[in-house]
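Sanity check

After download, print the first record. It should look like this:
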Amino acid sequence: MKVTVLGCGGSAGVPMLGGEDGHGIWGACDPDEPKNYRSRASLFLEMGNGENILIDTGPDIRTQLLANGITAFRSIFYTHAHADHISGLDEVRGINRIIRQPIKAYGIASVLSEIQTRFDYVFKPWTAPEFFRAVVEAHPVEPYGLFEMAGYPFTIFPQQHGRVGSSGLRCGDFAYSTDVVELGQDALECLQGVDTWIVDCFQRKPHSAHAWLERVMEWKEILFPRRIILTHMGTDMDWRWMQANLPDGIEPAWDGMCFTLPDPEPVLA
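Expected structure tokens:
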């Protein structure tokens, strides 16, 4: 399984719009460090059976797919329905045209329902052969437990994201937890034994809706993953500061980061 971090920034990206010269608000991030440029959080999984999975379709998805040479996937998993994770959905029309079929959209029922209220036309039945719009098919899953996606077993688990919830995802020894500030017992049990965990860490100080560095370190002492990779980072999280100050076992992601992991056992047909 190949994992590609398409974007690792918060809802406003880094830099944020504005600044004295209009070229961005960088906060503590050094604008001369390329790895401080962060688009909105998204992930891509290339599975051993040839299937690919996109996690979330944020507003930067077109640029992210082009930058990483991605031209095909048949599954999307949605962590939640905030705009920075869904508003690029129209862009998958280009993928529809390449694969010549609708794309399956997975997520809990309430999330898919909210996405449908904003993009109702995308979920309408497709009439072959042309794609004049993006076309996806809703595949709702339970908020907690095992489900099949792209021929593999995944586990979805609930997370608290401020006033709303979000979904974490585990596949084999790998897990992804964007947009989370609290993990309940179900989530912690699901994450037991995880080897590589990509997790939200928006800033160094406490935040009401996102994990911060001390919170991530608390989870590290509970779960003991071999490798923690920080994502959904804001302008407080300077790359060089993190390189110099993060403890062993915790590292920052960057846009375009790739690594490979052992493929989980596929679901038998």
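If your output differs, re-run the checksum step. Summary of this record's structure: The first helix runs from residue 61 to 67.
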